[in-house]
């Protein structure tokens, strides 16, 4: 083999060796870049997932806050409406009671209350308080002499209040008291509001 051939052979082997080394380095570099790319891709995906979760949590918080505000507004509105309806209802009931007090049925009821109170007094003196409009009626039904009848300064809305002097006891059967007791206990059902 001549020097030229040896030189060409050496050159070819050097080039092949260098090319093989370069190919190996490039492949190693590609593998390294692929690994780093996968790691980076995983980190980016985690970061994106975390940011999405944080954004969703923020949106959920905002929605919950807005929903809570709307619910509070609805409950407040319900409360205001229920209070107004309750007031209107009891005004209507009061008018109905006053209309009832002008009937014969009311006079019969008042008469029965008066005689029931006399039975409870068991002969002891008592004072019956009624609305001024009812005093003449009670005088007309012939109550015993130990029963005193007075017109009340309070607005009873009807009915009778009896003071048993010997027993130191008051029997209050006035419609105003009964209406106030019912008004105090009355509540609209909140079942429908709970569904909101």
Commentary on this structure:
The radius of gyration is 49 Å and the shape is rod-shaped. The mean pLDDT is 87. The termini are far apart. The chain has 196 residues and is α+β, with helices and mostly antiparallel strands. Helix 3 links the parallel strand 1 and strand 2. A four-stranded mixed beta sheet has the order 2-1-3-4. The longest helix has 98 residues. The protein is built from five helices and four strands; from the N terminus they run ααβαβββαα.
Structural class: alpha+beta
Helical fraction equals over 70%
- The average pLDDT value, as a whole number, equals 87
Output the number of helix runs: 5
Shape: rod-shaped
**How large, in whole angstroms, is the Cα Rg?**
49 Å
SSE arrangement:
Blueprint: H1 3-100, H2 104-121, E1 126-130, H3 132-140, E2 147-151, E3 159-164, E4 169-174, H4 175-185, H5 191-195
Tag the structure with descriptive keywords:
196 residues; alpha+beta; four-stranded mixed sheet
Write a concise synopsis of the structure shown.
The chain has 196 residues and is α+β, with helices and mostly antiparallel strands. The chain contains five helices and four strands.
